[in-house]
Amino acid sequence: MQHGPAVRRRKLGAELRALRTSAGLTSGEAARLVGWHQSKVSRIETGTSGVKPADVRLLLDAYAVADTQLRELLMVLAGSEDSGGRHHWWHAYRGVLPPTYRDFISLESQAGAMRTLETTVVPGLLQTPEYARAVTKAAVEGLPEDRLDTLVEVRLARQDVLRADPPLELSAVLDEAVLRREVGGPGVMARQLERLVEAARLPQVRLQVLPFAAGAHIGVTGPFVILSFLSTSDLDVVVLDHLTSSLYLERKEDLQAYTEAFNALQIHALSPEESLDFIAGTAAGA
């Protein structure tokens, strides 16, 4: 288990090492091609030191990597903006957001797909402003109003990934408790449920409800997120949230275990069509 920044460095380094190996180069040969000392290549590949986007570009050129999507992903992981010129908007919130949250947003913004189990609250990408405010206020007591406004602003800005081109593919399994827990009062909850109905109809969103009638399930240990990257599965990661930080699981065994758990949850949950009816019915009775 690693914190976000360490995971990103390790995954970036591992991918660069794999590309070097595919190019038939030793670390010493790669270093000579770009005019570095061999130790710099080793530190980058092991994730023990950061790497600038310009350095990543040099290595990718040296390894003759032509896959533009892969190049862009690795460049962004190194801190570059994407090809559309979109800057890392979350950098403007450095004084407000903890590093682990900023790093999660960075990974989320570049992921091709997200699978998430939520057992207590609506996923952040699907929250209304009023619901986001109520959840944030409850999670962090005594938060000044201006900082609360900023955190809600960040939560809503994150939702742009669902409107990107291409959009993030979101698959979410929601425990029935998510729909039943009244957050922010009846009016706020009613509008949030309506938002879920709207989201469930989007082609890039797959929502399933795990009803109480399903009994105990593998997700009772807590919520989790699996981020997947289209260019390479080696960058996939599981994210577990805790009260004061987030943990990232990157081992293949962990990814397989959580993927199998999510697949099992989807089987036991209502179908997307049944879930849409269930959410709509809950909204009507809210």
From TrEMBL:
It holds the Pfam family DUF5753. SUPFAM superfamilies: lambda repressor-like DNA-binding domains. GO terms for molecular function: DNA binding. Residues 16-70 form the HTH cro/C1-type domain. It comes from the Bacteria. Transmembrane segments: none annotated. This is Transcriptional regulator.
